[in-house]
Design a protein that fits this description.
Elements lengths: L5 H31 L24 H29 L2 H13 L2 H10 L3 H16 L8 H4 L9 H7 L7 E4 L3 E4 H14 L2 H4 L2 H17 L5 H5 L4 H17 L8 H4 L6
Length: 269
């Protein structure tokens, strides 16, 4: 049986981390160079009303409903039972640490997209959060940055494309991944290919185990939401509307634009 000494394991981890950081920053600089040239700061998230093309249409509804039904069956027979067992068998504090660990691994993606959106101050905050949680927080198992009152953000490439004024395109339900827009679906490619930290920290055999733990952990956090969904006459439409409103909220940093008819109205005294 092969064994790894602590020194070999540490050197292997350092190699994986250095390779990950090189690729991460290389991607960041490439995207930053190509994007900032065309990025109008007046259309950034700091000035959300200037952004257009926020409406998501659903021309592929028949296909989407079919995929939605498939995802629901997979959830009913696989993910939901696994999430319930996970909650039952894994203590709350350990679940919190697991959630913190995987949440911390999303920070490099957030930092890159902070820069691509021209949010320098937020990128510094998120970099500090990542550094503190990765060190004092023991690889992110503990949210040490919260004790320092560093805010937590989540930015992705779909949000960046929105800030760059790329229209959302049609609504689409992705197999296993769930609701999305065409813009957000394209935004998943660089994250899964380059900035997702999990492949850099785990070898091929343990990567899928870590991914499944992350999926089940995320699903366990949503167990309470299904009561709301069960009360809806059309869960598909409710999920679509919830996704649309949620994405508007994160794209505009919690201040989504008012409907056009309200924007056109004169303020009253």
């Amino acid at each position: 049986m092969k064994t790894l000494t602590i020194s070999k394991l540490c050197s292997l981890n350092r190699f994986k981390e250095s390779r990950y950081l090189v690729r991460m920053f290389a991607l960041g600089y490439i995207l930053l160079a190509s994007g900032c040239a065309s990025l109008d700061t007046s259309q950034s998230a700091a000035n959300p009303v200037a952004l257009k093309n926020t409406e998501i249409t659903d021309p592929w509804e028949d296909w989407n409903r079919g995929v939605y039904g498939l995802n629901e069956r997979i959830d009913q027979y696989v993910l939901k039972p696994a999430a319930k067992s996970y909650q039952l068998l894994v203590p709350l504090r350990l679940r919190a640490s697991i959630n913190n660990f995987f949440s911390n691994l999303t920070q490099p993606t957030t930092i890159i997209n902070d820069l691509l959106q021209g949010q320098l101050e937020q990128s510094l905050q998120d970099t500090a959060r990542f550094v503190f949680n990765s060190t004092f927080g023991v690889l992110g198992l503990f949210d040490f940055a919260s004790y320092l009152e560093l805010p937590k953000h989540r930015e992705d490439f779909g949000q960046t494309l929105a800030v760059w004024n790329v229209p959302p395109g049609p609504y689409v339900v992705l197999p296993l991944l769930g609701p999305s827009s065409l813009r957000d679906a394209f935004g998943l490619a660089p994250e899964y290919s380059y900035t997702d930290a999990v492949p850099y920290l785990f070898d091929h055999s343990s990567y899928w185990a870590a991914t499944m733990v992350n999926i089940v952990d995320n699903r366990s956090n949503k167990l309470g939401l299904e009561k709301v969904l069960s009360l809806q006459l059309d869960p598909y439409s409710f999920t679509k509307e919830s996704y649309t409103q949620s994405r508007l909220n994160v794209i505009f940093n919690g201040s989504p634009p008012l409907p056009d008819d309200l924007l056109d109205e004169e303020p009253t005294n």
